[in-house]
Amino acid sequence: MDFYLTALLQGLCFSGIALGIYISMKIFNIPDITTDGSYTLGGVVTAILLTRHLPGYLILPAVLFAGGIAGAVTGFIHTKLKINPLLAGILVMTALYSVNLTLMGRSNLPLIGTSSIFTLLQILSNPNQNTFLILFFFVLVVTLLIGYLLKTDFGIAMRATGNSESMIRALGVNTNRMKIIGLALANALTAVSGYLITQFQAFADMNMGIGIVIVGLGSVIIAETFIGWLHTTSVWLSLVLVLAGAVIFQLVLALTLRMGVDANLLKLVTAVFVLLIVSLPRLNRVKE
């Protein structure tokens, strides 16, 4: 049971990535590869500040700021320098590798003997259950804030930028600024996942972000499949399904390992699973 509970906890930790990919790809239609770098950046900043015993109320804002800056740089390169968004994300992701390595000073930074958000708050005696409760409320607060933002006039302008950029520009909205803010927000959320997973696994590693974008992409595609089946346009339900997608993705991977699949093949299984999710709606249309 603890095996699947761990997968559930990891799914909650990765919810920030899922929400970030949802904002960049589904709202702004921008394939942002900065995710791999900003996720690691969030973990690196968290690990460095935890080893310096800074209080938690300073660490989270620092992580949000670092991730936001990374996303804003990608947005600036795309909008101001007119570089393809995919290439802009790759450039920033590549640069972030050196930034992360310089900040950390080595490839791996353990957090043995340091406190974390999961040890500072002792609500339940069982460590896994206590971690679940903290993660649940943390993700709930983040989701409520994002949902509220997307329902405001500013959020509607963000969504309109992705749906019909020319129309919203004609109404006087600065779409370039919207894209920069949107990518900053998306990568800030991604950095939050790095913040959570670093404390959950008690170390930060330079390679922790390699291929992590597929986790967020898979989560969003799972959510998109459910959204299509339910024919919903609700922002709140869409966000809930994105979170559910992140959890389902991790549970499927846990089930794969439980079935005895070699851990060395996990990335291959992940790629095949995402391919199946992507293909499923298209196969249904072909049958119809």
Describe this structure in words.
The protein is mainly α and about 290 residues long. It has one domain (about 1-205). The chain has 13 helices and two strands; from the N terminus they run H-H-H-H-H-E-H-H-H-H-H-E-H-H-H. Strands 1-2 form a two-stranded antiparallel sheet. Helix 2 (about 15-25) runs antiparallel to helix 10 (about 175-200) and helix 4 runs antiparallel to helix 5 (about 85-105). The N and C termini lie far apart (about 40 Å). The mean pLDDT is about 85.
For the largest beta-sheet, the strand count, sense and barrel status come to: 2 strands, antiparallel
**Percentage of β-strand residues:** under 5%
Using the alpha-carbon principal axes, give the shape: globular
The largest sheet has its strands arranged as 1-2
Portion of residues within helices: over 70%
Number of strands: 2
Task: Give unreliable regions as ranges.
Answer: none
Gyration radius, in Å: 19 Å
Structural class by secondary-structure content: mainly alpha
Mean pLDDT: 87
